[in-house]
Structure formats: structure tokens, C-alpha cells
Amino acid sequence: MARLDLTRESAALAAELEREAPELAALSSDARASAIETWRGRMVNEHASARVFAGLIPQLMRAELDAGRQAEVAEMIADELRHARQCAAVVAALGGAPIGELPALSDVPAHADAEPLEGLLRNIISVSCMSETVAVALISAERMNTGPAALKRVLGDILADEVQHARFGWRLLEELAPRLPAAMKRRLGVYLVTAFAHLREHELAHLPARPAPSRAAEAVGVCDGHEARRLFLDTVRDVIIPGLEDHGLPAAAAWEASLAA
Q: Contact 79/161 with Cβ under 8 angstroms?
């Protein structure tokens, strides 16, 4: 595994957070350990997300989408790298080392079996319409439960970017869906089964099936796993599935098929 060390890059913000949130120093050892683990995990995930968006740039070019959209995705890469530094700063402010191991990352699927636009749409739906939409819901809930204003501000900054990342996919789908051939929509519906299965596997692996260890831990960003899992499923059923269905994609049937599989 590659080593991610953001100690130097996060030092200035970490010092600022320590000044603005002196209550972090009063945390119990258990709450502190849980918070460090949570924020370090976020640090790694956010940094890894930059690679996902980077992988979309060549696909946008092959699908001949305009340069403005390519620039938007390039900004998303910078957003995710900044999020990683922000999470690293929280780790350091909590007394931890902002160092982690980056997992081995698969390349963004090339979808060689599809034309460039269809392959791109598969990935945009999976990344923006699914994963980023779930991120918006989860971070919104975490921010509401966070106590220190400085940490709430960090989550608010990250949330604002994630909203834009999700909207990018939904806007693109809104524009293109009316012009997509019916056969392509059917094929995208088949792909949704795989996309939903991957989304569920990924999210549940990162949302522990246990409550937050304490209210103090929850107030510094440690989520209640049971509540987060419920929110994930609600977001899929109440936001993602209806949104995809509105654009002519058989998302409800695909979700059920993914559960059966």
C-alpha cells in the first residue's frame, strides 16, 4: 500500500483548529481515539476520490463533452485533495498523526463494451448521482450532530463541494437523457444493477453496524453507524432511485435486482 502523509500540508490549519476548538483537548481517550480513526479514514477516502475524478477526464474527452465540463471535473480533483488536507488537520488537532495507508485502487472502469458516451454515463451515474449524493446526505447529518464550530465549518466546506459534485452528474443526466436512444437507456438500466451492488457494498463497508461510542465522540464527527446505514438506504430509495427514474432509467427494478443478486 502507498503511504499518505499530510503532516506538513495540514499543519497550519491544524494549529488554527486547536486554537478555535479548545474543547478537543478535553476529550476522553476513547472519544479521541474514535475521532482520530474516523477523520483519518475520511482523509484517506477523500484523497483517493481525487483519483476517481482524474480518471473521468479522459472519458469526458473521448465522449467529446465540452471543455467547460472537463474543467469542472478538474476542479473536483482539487476539491477532493483539499478535503483530504482538511481532514488531516482535524486528525492533527485531535492529537493524531495525519498519516495513513492508501488502499490499492482499481482504475476507473473503461467500459470497453460501450460507446464513449454510454461508458462515461455509467461512471457519472455511479460516481456523482450515486456516491456523491449519498455523501451529501451523510455529511449533512454528521454536520448537524457536530459540536465544535470549527469542525462544523470544516464539514460545511466539504459538504458544499460534495453538493456540487452530485449536481454535476444530475445536471448532465438531465441534459442528455432526453436525447438518449431507448436501447442505450435499457443498457444503462442493466448496468445499474452492478452500480447499486457496488454502492451498497462500498457504503456498508465504511458504515459500521454499531452506534457512536459516546455523545462526545459523535459531537466531534464519529457517526452512529445504525443511523448512517438507515440514512444511506433512505437516500437510495427516496432520492437516487426516483431521480434516475425521472430520466427514464429503470432504477427501482435495478435496485431490487441488485438485492436479489
A: yes
